[in-house]
Design brief:
Blueprint: H1 7-14, E1 24-35, E2 58-60, E3 66-70, H2 77-94, E4 98-100, H3 124-140, H4 142-145, E5 150-155, H5 158-168, H6 174-191, H7 193-199, E6 204-206, H8 207-213, E7 220-221, E8 226-228, H9 257-269, H10 273-276, E9 305-308, H11 317-324, E10 328-334, H12 346-361, H13 369-385, E11 392-395, E12 400-403, H14 404-425, H15 430-443, H16 449-460, H17 462-479, H18 487-507, H19 512-522
Antiparallel strand pairs: 1-3, 1-4, 1-5, 2-3, 5-10, 6-8, 7-8, 9-10, 11-12
Keywords: ATP-binding, Glutathione biosynthesis, Ligase, Nucleotide-binding
Enzyme class: ligase
Protein name: Glutamate--cysteine ligase
Length: 525
């Protein structure tokens, strides 16, 4: 199956002038705190940034040193980027002796056992979050969990879904929205590798990452600290990066919400031999993972894209999805953009908007297990060898091979048609200009982020290159004035988050073991 927007869909779009003006977006940017020498920081999460448990803007992910910055959901791209940059500006001023790492693949980590797990305090929910991370460490290793990326949250306005339902003669309800997002997700699995081709920026890794993971791929090296694959786009998304080979047994095709939830719940409730061998507790009786199932909790499911919806306190995602339907999708396949001080730029967002809308509008066929297999294979090909001349991938149910360039040109032909309509309805040419810009990347792989950063890394080494960029952006950001927020806003947010964490800790009535048992019973674990 090759992509194509039908003429009837294009004609319908021309009569929908306001549908795409209120797209809601949000960005979550991860970045390691590092020393001025390029080592992972061993310090605790800065107190001036508040409670990582309750600060909605600035938190941590796997470790104390892995920062995560979160923008509020908003339809204004300028607002979102100003907000994200203000967070970076403020944190740069706080980190007097440390830097924010500007690459997806981690800095120098001599001993992964010394990586501090994220600490969320003494409340039951805080202890559970840390224990979950301890489980990740014991299952996959701490090194993998230090890889950083961008998560992009995206949702279309309800007006679009209402008019889309009328056009497709579908029921106008939450099931229609969920079905539309599942179509997007399936097509992202089919063709989202083009995002890694264009925006992948992790073609190289530090030497101890290879040694820790016993990697045998044909790397080239500077005989010092840096290894790379000459045509790689995103090692972060490859099997040697942020991936989980054990989850391949799940075979989630995203053909229906009920199927997705069913498989996810089964994974959370099905023991897995590999993890059972780790055990629940160590020899001293300390818990070392939440459970021995395929997934400890639903968030452990790794995928380049996931369906999401808002959840209430203590509500699990699968319950919320069945009750409310899919409300937005989370793109998880974006590397840190090393050419942006905040890890992402506006051109990427405009292209993502265009591409994600296109993923909804093209073929709505269900995905077979065989097609899912070949889709995953395509992602692997692109992440490891995407810039190699005449590299071919497998497309469709018949597993027919096409060159990346040929499929990319077909995708861009459709994107141009969509861009013209969106620009016409918004009295603009921005989407067409975005297509012009990134089409050049398709014809000339040396323009891609991965090729450009690799040229720098090959000359300087990954640690020196990462440090140079990190220091450059640190000095730039800390001198810039805040644009949307004020310093007092960050201080108030930090203070309130600390008070809220203390309130939660003081209100706990159960011992941690009893809390976990109740959690497991509630979720049938």
């Amino acid at each position: 199956m090759l992509p194509d927007i039908s003429n009837s869909v294009l004609s319908w779009l021309k009569n929908q002038p306001y549908d795409f003006k209120n797209i809601n977006r949000g960005i979550e940017r991860e970045t390691l705190r590092v020393t001025n020498h390029g080592n992972i920081a061993n310090s605790n999460h800065p107190k001036l940034l508040g409670s990582a448990l309750k600060n909605e803007w600035i938190t941590t992910d796997f470790s104390e040193s892995l920062l995560e910055f979160i923008t509020p959901v908003d339809s204004r791209i300028e607002y979102m980027f100003s907000f994200l940059r203000d967070i970076h500006r403020y944190v740069a001023r706080i980190l007097n002796e440390e830097l924010m790492w500007s690459l997806s693949m981690p800095c120098r980590i001599e001993d992964e056992n010394k990586i501090k797990l994220a600490n969320y305090g003494t409340s039951n929910i805080g202890l559970m979050k840390t224990l979950y991370r301890k489980g990740l460490k014991n299952r996959y290793g701490a090194m993998m969990q230090t890889i950083s990326g961008i998560h992009y949250n995206f949702s279309l306005p309800i007006l679009f879904w209402q008019e889309w339902a009328n056009f497709r003669k579908l029921r106008n309800c939450k099931e229609t929205v969920s079905t539309g997002y599942l179509t997007l997700i399936r097509n992202y699995h089919r063709f989202g590798w083009i995002i890694s081709y264009l925006f992948g920026a992790s073609p190289a890794i530090y030497s101890n990452f290879i040694q820790r993971n016993n990697i045998t791929l044909p790397f080239e090296t500077n005989n010092k600290d840096t290894f790379w694959l000459p045509y790689a786009t995103s090692l972060r998304l490859s099997d040697i990066g942020y991936s989980n080979k054990y989850q391949n047994i799940l075979k989630i095709t995203f053909n229906s919400l009920e199927e997705y939830v069913h498989i996810l719940r089964n994974a959370v409730n099905t023991p897995f031999k590999k993890f059972a061998e780790i055990g629940i507790k160590d020899k001293d009786g300390n818990r070392i993972q939440l459970n021995t199932n395929i997934l400890q909790i639903e968030n452990e499911f790794y995928s380049p894209i996931r369906p999401k919806c808002a959840t209430h306190f203590s509500e699990v995602l699968s319950d919320a999805l069945l009750k409310n339907g899919i409300e937005y999708i989370e793109i998880r396949s974006l590397d840190i953009n090393p050419f942006s001080a905040i890890g992402i730029d506006k051109t990427q967002i405009y292209f993502l908007d265009l591409f994600l809308i296109w993923c909804i509008l093209i073929d709505v066929s269900e995905m077979t297990i065989e097609e899912l297999h070949y889709s995953k294979k395509n992602w692997k090909i692109v992440t490891l060898e995407g810039r190699k001349p005449n590299k071919k991938i497998n497309i469709g149910h018949n597993n027919k091979k096409y060159s990346i360039l040929d499929v990319g040109k077909i995708i861009f032909d459709d994107l141009y048609k969509l861009a013209e309509i969106l620009d016409m309805n918004q009295n603009s040419v921005k989407y067409q200009k975005i297509c012009d810009q990134f089409l050049l990347y398709l014809y000339d792989p040396e323009l891609t982020y991965s090729a450009r950063i690799l040229n720098i890394i090959k000359k300087e080494g990954i640690i020196s290159a990462g440090l140079s960029l990190s220091k450059k952006y640190h000095n730039l950001l800390r001198l810039e004035p805040l644009h949307l927020l004020q310093e007092k806003d960050f201080k108030i947010k930090a203070r309130n988050s600390i008070l809220e964490q203390k309130r939660i800790e003081n209100s706990d009535l159960l011992e941690f073991d009893d809390y976990l048992n109740n959690f497991n019973k509630k979720n049938n674990i």
